[in-house]
Design goal:
Two copies of one chain form a homodimer.
Chain A (H helix, E strand, L loop, with lengths): L6 E6 L4 H12 L4 E8 L7 E4 L2 E4 L1 E2 L10 E4 L3 H13 L3 E4 L15 H4 L9 E3 L3 H17 L3 E7 L7 H15 L38 H13 L6 E5 L9 E8 L7 H9 L4 E3 L11 H4 L5 E8 L6 E8 L3 H17 L7
Parallel strand pairs in A: 1-2, 1-6, 2-5, 6-7, 7-8, 9-10, 12-13
Antiparallel strand pairs in A: 3-4, 9-11, 11-14, 13-14
Protein name (chains A, B): Aspartate-semialdehyde dehydrogenase
Organism (chains A, B): Neobacillus mesonae
Function (chains A, B): Catalyzes the NADPH-dependent formation of L-aspartate-semialdehyde (L-ASA) by the reductive dephosphorylation of L-aspartyl-4-phosphate.
């Protein structure tokens, strides 16, 4: 945990679902840490977190908390990032922000290392970590874009409740128990904690993630659309998304239709390409019923891809099924991976 | 139950999930029945079913069971239909078959009354009831096709386990209980009872419904593709499907992308059209978080449509979310509705 040549790392939102995964991922990856500062809201401050055998007390996040910090991983909501990320940057830290606060800011790189790590060089103190559902899709699409070009993407998602936080997972489990025991239950969180109405998620599917925009798409859908174009540097790419919440605790799935630019590409060629693609595990053997499923991806950093097949009508069209642990590649692992690349590329140096 | 001017109706597969719903729907719809014969496999024969206060003993289905029958509703698997539907027809019955046995037979009409009831006149003894996931989609698409034309459909489904029978619902519930109680469990039925491997469905999503075909699509996906073209009389329509099983007991949902032929159509026009469409209930008010969900559709005959919005790039493209009770409009209600239309159009007359 304490390496002399390491970095002073801060985790903001250390008691949340993603914050906890960030800490665990830093440990698992053996990230070179000189000092680890755990920060949270005043409400959670004082909690003691066991990090690889060492007890660390969580402190309230304040501007001065970032003195001496080299890398700050933020995952405590957009308003906290908007307020404190500039304070961290002012004190010399590089911020990796897992909220939507800076993602579409044109001076902030939005990075998935397998896709656009060279954008890290353009940072102005903050690097944004994309939305969970965007990350796993672009990891699968990038090798295809690189070799065959990419014209169009239409995605329908099957998203786990942990994307809405630990309380949403608890709500799913409580409602499930109540239904099985034939007891009354309430819906208080999903689909969106801050929206007006809440609906049953147990044994249901809710076609709303985040709030609705004026154009009829939800904010989650617009994140997938806009972030994909930005990360892949394809402003002209046609992207459409429908985002749906499922009674699954962890693991997002996506049914992705895409059109390439090059004619004559076969499904076998796409499979061969993804078999060796960074961050991708190909699970595609219909004869043996091999395809990715959320229950199998939990705790793994990879993006799992299967069900690759050519559209029966559209010469340039293909379908695939993409699954990943939304708390890892979709959040904690992508953030820590960005921190790793910042170190390895010499963009962040220990103070 | 016993109407002098009514019909002698037989239900084949009377003890199954859909058979039970067929009986209930005949009662609810006050279908003019002179005599009701309940048939099943030898295994289930002898069971007594209470039909609107009257006890009826289930008999083993044999060729001679259909003597005097006017209308036979089949839902006991494709092999039973292949064997016994011709026997029923030979004895003067009109068969409404809810299996895939005759759906793609060119001499058998495949009917969703809201879409192509005039095809009923072309029957040769058997009328096929389409696949559940196809029915609800074409009910929503037909009014759009009629007014604006239809070029292309890409659908991703979110299907309930009851589509795989009552035992699959039991498996979902048993696995859910086991996971909540942290007990061991087995997977024995889903995704496909007769396939080699079985996977956990509780808190999971399985991208396989029915067996895989050589082209990488599942049979369920090919049913949606081929049946949609046949029912809508659009052999040139581009249709693609990805079918996914969810931990939901009853109620299929579908994320449908479609392209119309006419330029300049707005989402408001599509909504206005579907508001008054037969068999459709529009639930589309994003400002008030109104959209269809499987938990709300159970026990209702309608097809619920919401989340209608124009694609942001494709001038002819739209998205919508379609939900229906897969045991009712997807199976029992569509079959009984066909029987009602056969009577009302004078195609079947009581013997």
């Amino acid at each position: 945990m304490s390496q002399q040549n390491g970095f002073h790392v801060a985790v903001v939102g250390a008691t949340g679902a993603v914050g906890q995964q960030m800490i665990q991922t830093l440990v698992n990856e053996n990230f070179p840490i000189k000092k680890l500062t755990l920060l949270s809201s005043a409400r959670s401050a004082g909690k003691v977190v066991n990090v690889n055998g060492q007890e660390i007390t969580v402190q309230e996040a304040k501007p001065e908390s970032f003195e001496g910090v080299d890398i700050a991983l933020f995952s405590a909501g957009g308003s906290v990032s908007k307020e404190l990320a500039p304070e961290a940057v002012k004190r010399g830290a590089v911020v990796v922000d897992n909220t939507s606060a800076f993602r579409m800011d044109e001076n902030t790189p939005l990075v998935v290392p397998e896709v656009n790590e060279t954008d890290l060089h353009e940072h102005n103190g903050v690097i944004a970590n994309p939305n969970c559902s965007t990350i796993q899709m672009v990891v699968a699409l990038e090798p295809i874009r690189k070799k065959y070009g990419l014209k169009k993407v239409i995605v329908s998602t099957y998203q786990a409740v942990s994307g809405a936080g630990a309380a949403a997972v608890e709500e799913l489990m409580d409602q499930t128990k109540a239904i099985i025991n034939k007891e009354e239950f309430e819906a208080n969180i999903l689909p969106v904690g801050s929206d007006k109405k809440h609906y049953q998620i147990a044994f249901n599917a809710i076609p709303q993630i985040d709030k609705f925009q004026d154009n009829g798409f939800t904010f989650e859908e617009m994140k997938m659309i806009n972030e994909t174009k930005k990360i892949m540097h394809l402003p002209e790419l046609q992207v459409a998304a429908t985002c749906v919440r499922l009674p699954v605790a962890v693991g997002h799935s996506e049914s992705v239709y895409f059109e390439v630019e090059q004619e004559g590409v076969t499904a076998s060629e796409i499979k061969a390409l993804l078999k060796d693609a960074p961050g991708v595990v190909l699970q595609d053997d219909p004869d043996n019923q091999v395809y990715p499923m959320p229950a199998d991806c939990v705790g793994k950093n990879d993006v799992f891809v299967g069900r690759i097949r050519k559209d029966l009508d559209e010469e340039l069209g293909f379908h695939m099924w993409v699954v990943s642990d939304n708390l890892l590649k979709g959040a904690a692992w992508n953030s820590v991976q960005i921190a790793e690349r910042l170190v390895e590329l010499g963009i962040v140096k220990s103070k």
